[in-house]
Design the sequence.
């Protein structure tokens, strides 16, 4: 059954396509699945960036700064959580 999801045609530079193909090959997945996964992970950042751009275009610098700070804060928190060692685990003796 064909997908009912909206489609988007893209023209990619050769180096971008090569990087996607390389990752897809390494993961054993189709290139389209790799791109879809990457884009799905970026949805919160894309939404935050849209808020920053809209506020900036409207001339509302304070709202743009708040949206950017919120976006960056969420990203830094996610990065810190993902990379920090579990400090509460009991050490083996």
Sequence:
């Amino acid at each position: 059954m064909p997908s009912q999801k909206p489609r988007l045609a893209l023209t990619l530079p050769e180096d971008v396509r090569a990087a996607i193909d390389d990752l897809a090959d390494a993961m054993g997945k189709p290139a389209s699945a790799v791109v879809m996964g990457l884009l799905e992970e970026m949805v919160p950042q894309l939404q935050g960036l849209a808020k920053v751009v809209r506020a900036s275009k409207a001339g509302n610098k304070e709202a743009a700064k708040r949206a950017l700070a919120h976006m960056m804060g969420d990203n830094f928190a996610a990065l810190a959580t993902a990379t920090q060692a579990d400090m509460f685990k009991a050490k083996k003796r």
In short: The mean pLDDT is 84. The first helix runs from residue 14 to 27. DSSP finds four helices and no strands in the chain.
